[in-house]
Amino acid sequence: MTNKPDLRFLQIWNLSFGFFGVQIAYSLQSANISRIFSTIGADPHNLSYFWILPPLMGIIVQPIVGTLSDRTWTRFGRRIPYLLVGAIAAVIVMCLLPNAGSLHLSIANAMIFGLVTLMLLDTAINMAMQPFKMLVGDTVNEKQKGFAFAIQSFLCNAGSLAGYLLPIFFTAIGISNIALPGVVPDSVIYSFYIGAAILMLCVVYTAVKVKEMPPHEYAKFHGFEEQSGRKEKTNVIALLKKAPSVFWSVGLVQFFCWAAFMYMWTYTNGAIAKNVWNTTDVQSVAYQTAGNWVGVLFAVQAIGSVIWALLLPRFKSYKKAYAISLLIGAAGFISTIFIYNQYVLFFSYLLIGCAWAAMLAMPFTILTNALSGKNMGAYLGLFNGTICVPQIAAALLGGVLLSLLGSSQVNMLVLAGGLLLLGALTIRFIKIKN
After folding, report:
1. Above 80 in pLDDT, residue 113?
2. What is the pLDDT of residue 222?
3. Domains, the chain, ranges and CATH?
4. Per-residue buried b or exposed e for 197-213, using 16+ beta carbons within 10 Å of the residue's own CB
């Protein structure tokens, strides 16, 4: 196997720049889905069920994209065709989803329309998101991989910052943040429109600037013979049996981490509306103001994540960086139960951002360093199951746990902190392998 050459900073930057746009779409979804469905008329105890769709589509779409792209080669490359198709589909659906309450449908039909468009959006986002992780795994050598995923984490969180702040930006320049009962405010609708445009521009930039390795070069750098004639079939079960141990040990950590963040996305809106604005009325001005503030808090989280992502490469041990990050994030979640001031919550979400930065960078750095390149896409697609399964489990249990915790949504954030503590403890089972 020939060692991959070092890449220049701009080359590494270009590999992930499109992720900035994809993450704007993802952050708009994560910050506003509970708000959109609550506004349409969803019961708080049922909110977590709407969140089953994003990970469910991820666990279906990402392994398919990974497996197929491993066996794809076109003049546009191996991964980039899937990236472009996913981005185009996401742009279309982003213009439909926030209008679920604006089509003069009954509440039931508006919910169905919202669910269908949410499913399509998640399918498209997952199709556009997965190729970026594969591009880094394909192209970057082991020495630079930690730095490359840190850059990806930085761009991801910068995109999150932009997406989270769009609704409050439009409110500040005079776009209405309230609407008729059951209708999503224009500030949210316009945010999705602008986010769709930025997504397309960023993805096109990466598609134009990045040139993927042709098959013979890819085979040379990844230590296997290029297949000729009939393409080799990929057996998913066989791949899982041969998966390196870190696939499973990191996956265990992922379970606790992604369940925790599922509860953050689902319950932050209701938690701060009650704790800070003292309201549970989804049609009130106070509730919609809290909805905008969720975007601000998630933006603060993104800022904390961007800062922490710059510090992560300074740690000599991946495991130590990972564990410390999750412990800091757990403290952030648990602190929310004691805070009744909207600005003091900045402290909590800055700490949560440290965990998020590590979740975006550490698992993929550890895993891709333990993989050969032959089935890189397939393994990364399968590894996405360690992100999706915990979110599905958390969503299915969300209503039950909310009832057990006194129907207090802020208690669900404390539960998220406990899950991150468990994630930090399970890092000890990871055995780093190159």
Report:
1. yes
2. 60
3. 9-222+236-429 (1.20.1250.20)
4. ebbbebbeebbeebebb
- pLDDT number for residue 288: 80
What's the token pair of residue 418?
């406990």
Closest alpha carbon to 4 in 208, 148, 206, 150: 148
Helix axes 345-369, 107-139, angle to 10 degrees: 50
pLDDT at 229: 41
Percent of all residues in the chain with a pLDDT value above 70, rounded to a whole number: 93
- Predicted TM-score (pTM) of this structure: 0.71
- Closest by CA position to 154, among listed 44, 306, 31: 306
Confidence of residue 223 (pLDDT cuts 50, 70, 90): low
**What string of H, E and C letters represents the secondary structure of the chain?**
CCCCCCCCHHHHHHHHHHHHHHHHHHHHHHHHHHHHHHHHCCCHHHHHHHCCHHHHHHHHHHHHHHHHHHCCCECCECCHHHHHHHHHHHHHHHCCHHHCCCCCCCHHHHHHHHHHHHHHHHHHHHHHHHHHHHHHHHHCCHHHHHHHHHHHHHHHHHHHHHHHHHHHHHHHCCCCCCCCCCCCCHHHHHHHHHHHHHHHHHHHHHHHHCCCCCHHHHHHHHCCCCCCCCCCCCCHHHHHHHCCHHHHHHHHHHHHHHHHHHHHHHHHHHHHHHHCCCCCCCCCHHHHHHHHHHHHHHHHHHHHHHHHHHHHHHCCCHHHHHHHHHHHHHHHHHHHHHCCCCCCHHHHHHHHHHHHHHHHHHHHHHHHHCCCCCCHHHHHHHHCHHHHHHHHHHHHHHHHHHHHCCCCHHHHHHHHHHHHHHHHHHHHHCCCCC
| pLDDT tops 70 at residue 232 | no
Q: What does the alpha-carbon distance between residue 204 and residue 198 come to, in Å, rounded to a whole number?
A: 10
pLDDT score of 308 more than 80 = yes
